[in-house]
Amino acid sequence: MSYRLWISVSILAVVPFAPAVGQASKEAPKKVAAKAAASNKSAVPHTPWGDPDLQGVWNDATSTPLQRDIGVKDVLTDEEAVDFQKSLANDLTRDRRDGGPEVDVNRAYNDHWMDSRRLKITADKRSSLIVDPPDGRMPPRVPLPPEREKIRAARAAANERFNAGLPQNYTDFSLPVQCIIRTDSPPYLPTIYNNDFHIFQSPGLVVINPEMIHSARIIPVDGTPHLGKNLHQWLGDSRGHWEGDTLVVETTNFRTDPGVVFQGANPDTYKITERFSRVDATTLNYEFTIDDPKTWTKPWTAVIPWNKIDPAEQMYEYACHEDNYDIVHFLSGARDREKRGEAK
After folding, report:
1. SS3 track for 139-167
2. Phi/psi class of residue 236: alpha, beta or left (left: φ > 0; alpha: ψ in -120 to 50)?
3. DSSP alpha helices (H): ranges in 12-77?
4. Residue 233: phi, psi to the nearest 5?
5. Residues 132 and 30 sit within 8 Å (Cβ to Cβ)
């Protein structure tokens, strides 16, 4: 996969749109998931050992943006929702060839490879996935201390060198480009393809196998304590428990490598709490709250519906490897360009 494509993957869920402006709903949007789950308790099946049954293959694709545009109401009318989905057919298609060479390169993977479910907004017609704060936007960021600002600037410079085709060494390659982690690290956000998640359960354990990349996230739900604070992992250390029919998962202990935690948060203070609530036979609400007082002024929460896919639809291996093996070609090509005087 090209790095340009990954850039488009990572921003899909965070680019806001601007439908008609109106008054925000008076109902607290943070209660969306809880109300849906509570009103359908009788529909929640259970495993033979008594835990709520979340098993199956679920898909979280949606075009609803992570953040709401300023001044936009929280829920669209039916008419606004129809108009927006019509615009998606044109805005999100990768079969268009009307943007010049740079855009064409970014659309090299055409719509045949994309998840068509991404063209739909959430069924409740929300204008953002974020439900708390009520304005549907991430809270203000805390000013970075000099050492973290230096790390951020170094990563930005590495990305610029890579995008220019002039990486200095392998550390200029992001973790997604190296196929180490991508959408398998929480929080789970919708992208342009490979939006499936296979959930397995056994007594004391829940396993989430994302379609993208190659990890199986194993979550103990038997009271096993967290790892020691000095042990860090790509996907963090997850521990779960049941609150009624909702699976609550708390994850800490992420590695400090750039790109592991969401949007450059501080791995030492970053905590994500996820809630998986079975709404009915075909719907599961995924809610996550990110809490990092060294990055945001207060915690924030998003809710994403997961829809059960056709049982006959199979998840296949996502064998991401090409950029890892091609590092030698990227680097040798960059050195050749430098010899020809093409370096900035």
Report:
1. CCECCCCHHHHHHHHHHHHHHHHHHCCCC
2. left
3. 32-38
4. -135, 160
5. yes
**Measured distance CA(243)–CA(226) in Å, rounded:** 18
Note whether 244 and 224 are within 8 A (CB). Answer: no
pTM: 0.84
C-alpha closest to that of 109 among 7, 240, 256, 232 = 7
Query: Are 120 and 85 within 8 A, CB to CB?
Result: yes
pLDDT in tens, the chain (344 residues): 333 333 333 333 333 333 333 334 444 444 544 544 444 445 789 999 999 999 999 999 998 999 998 888 899 999 988 887 777 777 888 888 888 888 888 888 888 888 888 888 899 999 999 999 999 999 999 999 999 999 999 999 999 999 899 999 999 999 988 888 988 999 999 998 999 999 999 999 999 999 998 889 999 999 999 999 999 999 999 999 999 999 999 999 999 998 899 998 999 999 999 999 999 999 999 999 999 999 999 999 999 999 999 777 788 888 887 777 888 999 999 999 999 998 76
Contact 183, 262 (CB under 8 A): no
Cβ atoms within 10 Å of 209's Cβ, excluding its own:
17
Instruction: Count H helices and E strands in the chain, helices first.
Output: 7, 10
Strands (E), the chain: 56-59, 130-132, 196-202, 205-210, 217-220, 237-243, 246-252, 271-280, 283-291, 300-308
Structure tokens at 275: 């809630």
